[in-house]
Amino acid sequence: MINSNILAMLQAQVAQYLTDTCTIEQDTTVVDEFGGTTPAFVVVASSVACAVITIGTDRSIKAGLTGDQQTITDEYRIILPNGQQIETGWRVTVGSDVYHVTNILDKRTNETDVQVIARRQR
Predict the structure, then answer these.
(1) Could you list the residue range(s) of the whole structural domain that residue 55 is in?
(2) HEC assignment per residue over 34-92
(3) What CATH code is carried by the domain that includes residue 106?
């Protein structure tokens, strides 16, 4: 376990590199006016400091088909402040870019930050 003073110093160091801001949304369903359910995203947190990092080119770009249209999916690591609530299936919006969280990387960050793997489809 890291000493609390050192941990606070490390968290402050990480915070210096979180130069973007994002909105975090949870995937849920809402009841529409007809009593049916509709998929929706609900804002969990806004104006959250973050950093978006491209994962190496061998893993980061995947081509596929959606209907008859070819799509390219890029994979990224998103770093958030320690303690930030986020789950797989949620999405993170930075500017006009929307990322879908596929994996949480919390085992090796030593509580300095929260990291996720996310995909952006274009």
Answers:
(1) 4-121
(2) CCCEEEEEEEEEEEEEEEEEECCHHHHEEEEEECCEEEEEEEEEEEEECCCCCCCCCEE
(3) 2.40.10.270
